[in-house]
Amino acid sequence: MAIRGREHKPGSYDAAVPGTIYWTLSLYIEPDRVAQALGRKAVEHLPSSVFRRAQMRHLPSLALRNAIDPLFNDIADRETQGEVQEYLLATTAAQCNDLEDAAALIRRSEPLTFKVDKSTTWMTEGVTFEAHPPALDDPRRVGLRTFWVSHNNGALTYHLSFNHHYAEVFDENGVARSGYDPSTYYFLSLLQKLAAPKEYALKPELLTALIETADPYVDVFSDTPLGIDPLDTLKVEDADGKEARFWPFVQQRLTRDARALFPRVARELDIPAPAHGFETGLVDMVPFIEVPGLKVPKSRFMFVVHDERLFDRLMPLDAAGLASVPRKSMVRDGCYAPYQKQISDLTAPDAKGLPPRRVHLGEPTAEEEKKEVNPRDRVAADFWNWATKRAEYDAMLAAGGFARAPAEGAKKVRGAPPHVVLKPNDHDGLKKAMREGTCVQLLDAKHQPLAAPIRHHVPAFELNRADCLDYLFLAGFNQNIIDFMNQDTSEILDSIDPIYPDSDEQSDERFFVRYANHRAMITYVPRSRSLEIGNDYIGTCPYAFLIHLLALHNEFLARAHEERSMARIERITAMTAGRTPHDSAALRALRDREEIDPDDSGDPTELLINRAKLAEFEDYERFRYANPFRYDTERDVFAKLQDLRGTNRKQAALTTAIASLEDHASDLRRRRQQRADQESARRDLRINLLLGGMGIFGAGQMIYWIGEKAAGEDNAPKSLLFSTAADKQVGTAIMGSVEVAMAIALALFVPLLIWILVDAIRASTRR
After folding, report:
1. Rounded distance, CA 356 to CA 341, Å?
2. Which residues, listed in sequence order, are joined to residue 165 by a DSSP beta bridge?
3. In this predicted model, what pLDDT tens digit does every residue of 658-681 receive, in sequence order?
4. CA distances from 747 to 627, 693, 736 (A)
5. Cα–Cα distance, 226 to 721 (Å, whole number)
6. Which residues pair with 402 in a beta bridge?
7. Rounded to an integer, what is the distance from CA 706 to the centroid of its chain?
8. Which runs of E-coded beta strand occur in 491-531?
9. Which of 108, 121, 118 is CA-nearest to residue 64?
10. Distance in Å from the first CA to the final CA of the chain
């Protein structure tokens, strides 16, 4: 068993050696959680000036800033209101005597060893695969650097930068051989699966048990076996020989480094350092949608692959090595048809129409694994020997089945044979003919003469078909697919189409090529001065890292803003509909942040709409990084990354939602005005009815008085109108009529008065 990877000498500068992968895993810590860890309210976000002071008082952090910030500033306009608002913070708690000692301290990488089982398992398209590539269980030396970055809204990101040299393998005698083999490609693929375990599922019994719990999820920090191969089986061993699964190891390092940073920040706030245990609430765990029931930290990651060989696969040149050629000319269907046939045969239903229970790529190596092979399993025992050696080419050469034909368009020489048969073991001749397109196949697979020779043209042809393995791996890695042996030509071409470069002019520069999937940005470089510098301090290329860092911040800022905005819309919609809002964690958090003042004289719905409109700036636009990059390369990649991650889409959707709220506010104002007009009309009607009733009673009283005058005593003085005795009868009649009319009016007026009072009370209650 060989130990793979280079050993880094602590304190020295770490040379960026070709054939090395640099992997940076970044955890996003919301500003609310940072504030709460320091005993503040969730809304009391830390200003960037606090982190600036923490950086300046800590020499290792200052040394980190001195090394990396100039590179950041070369490619981006980072100024906001006359200052930078993002600060690099070293994880070490040590204080140094001077900057030179501090720089030496932060250049030290932590030596780790990653250990993988002899095989790895995944599920795709309903079939379980288990790959047994030789030497997969070789221990891998890995270097680690950790650091923090504070953001303009009070958030923190915690970064773990791993590096591993995979291109060479040294045996026990120190003899080196190539590390470009299937075990390397699976190991590199597993690194990505640690952070984003697509193609897996939780154990059925675990998933069933989770359904009965209040929070039906298990997170990657849990000690519970998950049934996800890389998360359960890959172990990280530190310099002291302590082993842990990957995510518990990350949790250990986060805890250690948080306990070093937060007391420094607390001193800048002039408050006591938080008690141990605060770090457990730093990381927000969110569902990983590809694996139901699993939660992972809010995180994104990036790779920088420093490799001339893989770079040339992705940015191919012509035979003379001078001009770029299309990738599709290097990836030919005939190269991958044999691999597709192998996988198709292994996954085909049996005579009873049943699919295989499990497909083994290679023979299980451990006795325990062999015992577990089920009769319905398919085992391709010679798969990796065939895939890496392709002995059929040697056999065809030995049988005289390959020949070189004149190049197309070349003049035919009289008497010259149409084909020159290649000699056995003429690998160079076969390689040259394949690449030039002058190779013809004279015999079939059974070494019988063909009716018509088959012409081959494989510009990327390598002996043992190393070109095929490289392209299969690269296509799978770019899309985070571990089932990379199961791809056809169209899938490979789609997966090696980069986000940069995307034009012939950009391709001719040949500086780097970049890819991205939903959670990772991947950069391939043949060489890089910035990587050489940044590797010693942050473990990656600063230029690529800044793109990754700002895109990461914008994405989670947009996600948080989307969550709060949807909660605001639900609250407003429920309030206008007169129902109770659906309970959710986001709505409860929103109530704590934005309470409604019952004494506010304004309309609460309009107040909430105005708050939602204001939050578009306060929560999002104020802290969002507009594309700050000075150069087209970084600017284009940043824009495409935001499109791919859905940041721009979410922003557009929220802008539309805010616009709809404004329309809703206008509609509410119109309806309120209509209600006010209706209420005013009702109020006028009530007043008119009251006045009318009072008028009726007043007129009745006057008429009754006239009747009294007319029916007065004989010796009473008469009025001018009623002066005779006969008028007494008239007066009596008037009084009788008025009494009847007033009794009827009173019977009508009392219910009317009660209705007016009740309606007025109801209107007052509605207000």
Report:
1. 16
2. 20
3. 677 667 667 766 776 777 777 777
4. 79, 11, 17
5. 110
6. 441
7. 92
8. 513-516, 520-525
9. 108
10. 81
Task: Determine the Cα angle at 301 with ends 274 and 14, to 5°.
Answer: 90
User: Closest Cα to residue 472, out of 355, 396, 361?
Assistant: 361
Yes or no: say if 622 and 151 are a contact pair by the CB < 8 Å rule: no
Q: What is the largest CA-CA distance in the chain?
A: 166
Peptide bond into 501 cis (omega under 30): yes
Question: Is the separation of the CB atoms in 9 and 15 below 8 Å?
Answer: no
Within 502-541, where are the H helices? 504-509, 529-534
Give tens-digit pLDDT for 9-18.
Answer: 666 678 889 9
Which contiguous run of DSSP H or E holds residue 439? strand 439-443
Sort residue 651 into left (φ over 0), alpha (ψ -120 to 50) or beta.
Answer: alpha
680 contacts: CB under 8 Å, gap ≥ 6: none
Q: Distance (Å, rounded) from C-alpha 545 to C-alpha 86?
A: 13
Q: Which helix (H) or strand (E) holds 257?
A: helix 246-269
Show contacts of 383-389: CB within 8 Å, 24+ apart. Answer: 383/342, 384/132, 384/133, 384/134, 384/182, 386/342, 387/182, 387/339, 387/465, 387/469, 387/485, 388/181, 388/182, 388/464, 388/465, 388/466, 388/469, 389/464
What token pair was written down for 400? 């005289």
Instruction: Identify the H or E element spanning 708.
Output: helix 647-710
> Exposed (0-12), middle (13-18) or buried (19+): which is 314, by Cβ within 10 Å?
buried
Report the 10 Å Cβ neighbour count for 643: 13
Supply the Cα-derived Rg of the chain in whole angstroms: 40
Task: Enter the tokens of residue 470.
Answer: 């490289």
SS3 382: coil
The model's pLDDT over 319-335, given as tens digits with 9 standing for 90+, comes to 777 788 888 889 998 88
For the stretch 359-402, pLDDT in tens is: 999 998 777 677 778 888 899 999 999 999 999 999 999 999 99
Phi, psi angles (nearest 5°) of residue 665:
-65, -40
| CA angle at 169 for the pair 164 and 174, rounded to the nearest 5° | 120
Containing 640, the helix (H) or strand (E) segment is: helix 632-644
